[in-house]
Design goal:
It contains 15 helices and 13 strands. The chain is an alpha/beta fold. The chain folds into 2 domains: 186 residues, Rossmann fold; 170 residues, Rossmann fold (3-Layer(aba) Sandwich), CATH 3.40.50. The chain is globular, with a radius of gyration of 21 Å.
Length: 372
C-alpha cells in the first residue's frame, strides 16, 4: 500500500461540504489501514489527530491561512513535506496541485460548472478555478471525481483522458446525519424561532447555481393560498443580492427565515424535521446536501441536473429549476403526507448505500494506479 500525503490544508474553512468530504475521507482511509500523512492548517491538527489516530499529522506554517500564501506554499512546501515523509503519492483534494512534486499526484475535481455555468460564479473565482482545473487535469497522474456526470463533463469540456479519471462517490457520516429524535427537532427549530411551526428547508451555499431566488419565488407561489402556511428556512452561505431581492417580493404573510450558517449538531434536527428539504440546484459535482438530507429521513426535492439523479435515484422528487415548476412540485409534496412518508423511507434506504469506507476504497485504488 503506498504512503499517501493528503493536503488537507487546501480546503477553505468556509466550504462546508468540501470540509466534510476531506474529513470523512481521511477518517475512512485511516480505518482502512492506509499509510497516511495529513498536512493541515495548525488549527486543524488536533481534529485530524482524532479522525486519523494512526496517521502522521503535519501542521503547515502559520502563513498558509492566507490563500495566496497557501497557493505559493503548495508548489514548494508540499513537495518538500512529501520527500521528508517518504510519501509515494500526493492527494490534492481541491482542484490545484504542486506541479513539480517529485512523486505522482492525484487531484479531486469536484465539478465543472466553472466551464459549463460560468455566469453562476464570480468572474474572478471562475477564472481561477478554470485555470486550476485545466492544469490539474493535464498534469496529475490520476483525477478523482465524485460522480459519473462530472467525469463525462470533464471529458466533454476539456477533452480529458477518461482512462485517467476515477469515480469515487462521497459518503455520508451516519453518526452525524441520522433521523433525529423529537428533542433534536425541537432544539434545532427553537433556535430558529419556529417553535413547532412546520417548514420547508434549504441548506447550502447561497451562490447563484444553488438557485435560491427561484426556490423562494416557487415556495411563495406554492403556499400562497394555504391558510396557515409553513415557513421557508434558508440555511447556510453568504447572503446574495438576488436572494435579498427575492425575499422582498414575498408577501408579509409568508415567513422566510434566513439564519445563516447552522451548527453541525443542529443539522439532523433541522433537515429531518422539515416537511421537505428543497435543493433545486442548477448543477452539482455530487450534491452532498441531498445525500445528507436523505440520511436524516427528510423528503427531498431536487433537479435532474448533472449528478443529482445519481445521488437521489428514485428516492427523491424532481423538479425543473424554474420558479413555476418548483411551485408545482412543492405544492404537490406539501399536499400529500403519504408521498412525503414514502420519500422519507426510500431516502433513508438509499443513503445507506453511500459510505465513506466505500469512497476510501475507491481512493486507495486511484492512489495505487497513480504509483503504478
Amino acid at each position: 500500500m503506498p504512503r499517501v500525503l493528503v493536503d488537507a490544508a487546501a480546503v477553505p474553512a468556509d466550504r462546508g461540504a468540501l470540509i466534510r468530504y476531506v474529513d470523512g475521507l481521511i477518517a475512512a482511509l485511516d480505518r482502512a489501514g492506509a499509510d497516511l500523512v495529513v498536512v493541515c492548517q495548525r488549527a486543524d491538527a488536533e481534529k485530524y489527530g482524532r479522525l486519523a489516530p494512526s496517521a502522521t499529522i503535519v501542521p503547515g506554517p502559520v502563513s498558509i491561512t492566507n490563500r495566496a500564501a497557501r497557493l505559493a506554499w503548495e508548489q514548494t512546501g508540499v513537495p518538500l513535506l512529501a520527500r521528508q515523509n517518504s510519501a509515494d503519492v500526493i492527494h490534492a483534494p481541491y482542484y490545484s496541485i504542486p506541479l513539480r512534486s517529485g512523486v505522482p499526484t492525484v487531484v479531486t475535481v469536484h465539478d465543472v460548472t466553472w466551464f459549463t455555468e460560468p455566469d453562476q460564479h464570480s468572474a474572478v473565482k471562475a477564472s481561477f478555478f478554470r485555470s486550476a482545473t485545466r492544469t490539474a487535469v493535464r498534469h496529475a497522474n490520476r483525477v478523482i471525481v465524485p460522480s459519473k456526470a462530472t467525469r463525462e463533463e470533464l471529458v466533454r469540456v476539456l477533452a480529458a483522458d477518461p482512462t485517467r479519471i476515477d469515480v469515487a462517490y462521497h459518503g455520508v457520516d451516519q453518526a452525524m446525519f441520522h433521523p433525529p429524535s423529537e428533542e433534536e427537532v425541537r432544539r434545532a427549530t427553537d433556535r430558529l424561532g419556529l417553535h413547532g411551526r412546520p417548514y420547508v428547508a434549504f441548506l447550502g451555499a447561497l451562490d447563484p447555481r444553488k438557485n435560491v431566488p427561484n426556490l423562494i419565488r416557487g415556495f411563495a407561489a406554492a403556499v400562497k393560498s394555504v391558510d396557515d402556511p409553513p415557513a421557508l428556512v434558508i440555511g447556510g452561505g453568504v447572503h446574495e443580492d438576488d436572494v435579498d431581492a427575492a425575499c422582498r417580493e414575498v408577501e408579509a404573510t409568508i415567513k422566510v427565515v434566513r439564519p445563516g450558517y447552522l451548527r453541525i449538531p443542529d443539522l439532523p434536527g433541522f433537515l429531518g424535521g422539515a416537511l421537505v428539504v428543497a435543493f433545486p440546484s442548477l448543477g452539482e459535482g455530487f450534491g452532498l446536501p441531498v445525500l445528507e438530507a436523505m440520511a436524516c429521513g427528510a423528503p427531498v426535492l431536487t433537479t435532474h441536473r448533472t449528478s443529482l439523479p445519481e445521488v437521489g435515484g428514485d428516492a427523491v422528487a424532481y423538479t425543473e429549476p424554474d420558479a413555476d415548476s418548483i411551485a408545482e412540485a412543492l405544492a404537490a409534496l406539501l399536499a400529500y403526507a403519504d408521498r412525503r412518508a414514502a420519500l422519507r423511507s426510500a431516502g433513508l434506504a438509499r443513503a445507506r448505500e453511500f459510505t465513506w469506507d466505500a469512497s476510501a476504497e475507491a481512493h486507495l485504488s486511484a492512489y495505487q494506479r497513480a504509483v503504478e
